Amino acid sequence: MSSSAVPNSGPVAPAAPSVRRSGPTWWKVLVTGTVGAAVVNLIVLAVAELAGASLTVVDGSEEHLITVGGVIGASVVPLVIGTGAALLLALWKPAFLRIAQYVGGGLALLSVAGPLSSGSDGGTVAALALMHLTLGVAVVTVLQLFRRHH
């Protein structure tokens, strides 16, 4: 009587690890980065207020007051649209992550020209420039975190 069963030859080897890396999903990275940038920019706004900055920007003949809502909107909308689009495109072609890091960081640096040429007081200019740079850092960091874990 022959048996086709193989005798027990020892412990079974563990299954091979999954090829896909585990890490935060694209939307979790995006939400975390967006909330972080908004919080940092609100802290910059509070410090500028405490330092006595006027927090007004002159556009032609109109003065625009920088408000909490304006800071939140200006922090959240560009990050969600730009970085969100880059993250979604990267699901298709991962090369978009590196490209978006350069483009997003570069655009944030270029956008500092707005506050610098606003004609506002020094405290307001410094606060706005720092807020623009914060968004650039957030874009690069969010995309790097996603790149590193996927």
Number of helices: 5
Which segments are poorly predicted (pLDDT under 50) over 5 or more consecutive residues?
A: none
> Could you tell me the number of beta strands?
2
CA gyration radius, whole angstroms:
24 Å
Secondary-structure map with pairings?
Layout: H1 26-50, E1 56-59, E2 62-65, H2 68-92, H3 95-111, H4 113-116, H5 122-149
Antiparallel strand pairs: 1-2
Helix pairs in contact: 1-2, 1-5, 2-3, 2-5, 3-5
Summarize the structure.
This protein has 150 residues and is mainly α.
Which terms summarize this structure?
150 residues; mainly alpha; two-stranded antiparallel sheet; 5 helices; 66% helix; elongated
Q: What can you see in these coordinates?
A:
There is one protein chain. The protein has 150 residues and is mainly alpha-helical. It is built from 5 helices and 2 strands, in the order H-E-E-H-H-H-H. The protein has helices at 26-50, 68-92, 95-111, 113-116, 122-149; strands spanning 56-59, 62-65. Strands 1-2 form a two-stranded antiparallel sheet. Strand 1 (56-59) and strand 2 form a beta hairpin. The longest helix has 28 residues, at 122-149. It is elongated. The model has no long low-confidence stretch (mean pLDDT 89).
